[in-house]
Write a structure and sequence with these properties.
about 160 residues; alpha/beta; Nucleotidyltransferase, domain 5; five-stranded mixed β-sheet
Length: about 160
């Protein structure tokens, strides 16, 4: 089982891919798609193509994306939603099923607290995946989304009596 996690952003989109082999979780790839600060529609294209190319290269079985966190700035939330849409469309274009998780549920699954900060998420991702160094924030968030999906799905499978 190979899972692609995505932490969408209109300037920086985190990506992380993990493999599940038995009860082992192995990091395959993680990084950031740098969309930059140019024309917004151009950034959406960069995100779409970056995710599409990642899907073609690594062929994940499933994908998970973080939902939009709406703060006080509606304009930022709309742009984030559009960036998220570009990423989701790229995954769907590769015929990969996509699950969605709130930032709070991702933090809860990885750190044990829904209000965990970025440093705590980075630390736990490093520990859970046995990495020498903590990944950059956006990449760590994407790996956390992939890990959250794995934990959520494996729990649901255990409840249903299915083993992966």
């Amino acid at each position: 089982m190979r899972i692609l996690g995505i932490d969408p952003g209109s300037r920086r989109t985190g990506v992380g891919i993990i493999d599940i082999r038995g009860d082992r979780v192995i990091p395959v790839h993680f990084g950031v798609i740098q969309a930059g600060s140019g024309e917004f529609t151009g950034r959406l294209g960069i995100i779409f193509r970056g995710i599409r190319d990642l899907v073609a290269e690594h062929r994940p079985d499933e994908a998970a994306v973080e939902t939009v966190f709406v703060s006080h700035n509606a304009s930022s939330a709309i742009k984030l939603g559009q960036a998220r849409g570009a990423a989701v469309c790229a995954v769907i274009d590769g015929d990969i099923p996509v699950a969605e998780y709130s930032p709070r549920s991702v933090k809860q699954a990885i750190v044990g607290r829904g209000a965990a900060d970025k440093v705590q998420v980075q630390h736990m991702v490093r520990v859970l995946l046995g990495l020498r160094e903590a990944p950059q924030e956006d990449a760590a968030d994407a790996l956390a989304v992939a890990l959250c999906h794995y934990h959520t799905q494996s729990t649901a499978d255990r409840i249903a009596g299915i083993t992966r």
